[in-house]
Specification:
Blueprint: E1 10-21, E2 25-36, E3 40-44, H1 51-58, E4 66-71, E5 74-75, E6 85-88, H2 100-110, H3 115-128, H4 144-156, E7 162-166, H5 174-189, E8 193-198, H6 201-207, E9 210-215, E10 218-224, H7 225-228, E11 232-239, H8 247-253, E12 256-258, E13 261-265, H9 269-281, E14 286-293, H10 296-310
Parallel strand pairs: 3-8, 3-9, 6-7, 7-8
Antiparallel strand pairs: 1-2, 1-4, 4-5, 9-10, 11-13, 11-14, 12-13
The protein binds adenosine-5'-diphosphate (ADP) and magnesium ion (MG).
Length: about 325
């Protein structure tokens, strides 16, 4: 009998994932997400967007209503590849009577890592996540941040090909966050694929190669950081003279004046040129025309803000830049 294998280059290829919880809560409404092998992928979205539900479906912990696609080349829901996946859940709880080293040994045993390997790896990982001096302390004594670090070590105990992290820096201080970023960069260099859920823009912006923005159970945007931020939000025209004198005409063309500079919002080169013609005809010297690109934050606010407006919620305030 011929064995047919679906060949896919994606580490994760999710198609049409839907999940409805009790009382008709539609957590996911048809999600499509592709993650390349060896990349760090960030799933960004506000609380309640459906991020945790999606990763639990990937980890076969929650059963979707409908879903197609593959994880590490196996159909979604198949548990075969679970042994080469590492997972840091939203909340990790460890048996409180165990020390950190014992807890890692225990999870390593569940993941069928041979005894000698898992003990050696447990020691290395505790050092790597900054818990070396706390290896023999009972987990019940751990702070939230320490538990998070231990959770990360636990997710790595089987040396996974695919690492899935749900809000990895939740509960960590700025130093801890930076240490996690460094660790993730090291893991990427070692060829791991990493899927991160986060509601924190900065976290996703600094470590991820590709990003999807999830909002109300749907992917609103997906792409590399540069793909998502390639559009121009506005142009700034800097001139030699006082542009106050041409304010009325500039506004008629659709520009505005801010801090002695002319702003043209949107990607509107035609309007920029009309204003330049006006300025040149009045003997202003154009010093520069600067396009400002979207930041990931602009994209996020656009996606989340628009949708919030449409359901009557107050718009989200923009950070002054
Ligand atoms: N076990 C559950 N039972 C019922 N509703 C749930 C359950 N888990 C999550 N939800 C709901 O599904 C939606 C998505 O939640 P979740 O996947 O946790 O989002 P996120 O991780 O992005 O914050 C929310 O409305 C949440 O209240
Ligand atoms: Mg969550």
């Amino acid at each position: 009998m011929q064995h047919v294998t679906e060949i896919t280059n994606w580490a994760v290829d999710l198609i049409g994932v839907k999940k409805t919880y009790a009382r008709k809560i539609q957590a996911l409404r048809g999600v499509n997400i592709q993650v390349g092998r060896g990349e760090i992928f960030g799933l960004l979205g506000p609380n309640g967007a459906g991020k945790s539900t999606l990763v639990k479906i990937m980890m076969t912990l929650v059963r979707p209503d409908v879903a197609y696609g593959t994880v590490l080349g196996r159909p979604l829901g198949n548990r075969k590849k679970r042994a080469v996946m590492g997972f840091l859940p939203e909340l990790s709880r460890f048996p409180s009577y165990l020390t950190a080293h014992q807890a890692l040994d225990y999870y390593g045993a569940i993941a069928k890592v041979p005894r000698v390997t898992r003990r050696k790896r447990a020691t290395e990982l505790l050092e790597r996540v900054g818990l070396k001096d706390w290896s023999d302390t009972r987990v019940s004594q751990y702070s939230k941040g320490m538990s998070r670090r231990l959770g990360l070590a636990q997710a790595l105990i089987n040396d996974p090909e695919l690492l899935v992290l749900d809000e990895p820096t939740d509960g960590l201080d700025p130093i801890g966050r930076r240490e996690v970023r460094t660790l993730l960069a090291e893991l990427r260099r070692a060829g791991k694929t990493i899927f991160i859920n986060s509601h924190l823009l900065s976290e996703v912006e600094t470590v991820c190669d590709r990003v999807a923005i999830l909002h109300q159970g749907l992917v609103a945007r997906q792409g590399t950081l540069s793909e998502l931020t390639q559009h121009t939000v506005e142009y700034r025209i800097v001139t030699s003279g006082d542009v106050g004198a041409v304010r009325a005409e500039v506004e008629k063309i659709g520009g505005s004046i801010d801090d002695g500079q002319i702003i043209v919002s949107g990607h509107d080169a035609k309007r920029v040129n009309e204003i330049i013609d006006l300025l040149r005809s009045r003997d202003y010297l154009i010093e520069s025309v600067q396009p400002r690109r979207f930041s990931l934050e602009d994209v996020f606010v656009e996606v989340i803000g628009d949708a919030a407006d449409s359901v009557g919620a107050p718009p989200i305030a923009r950070r002054a830049s």
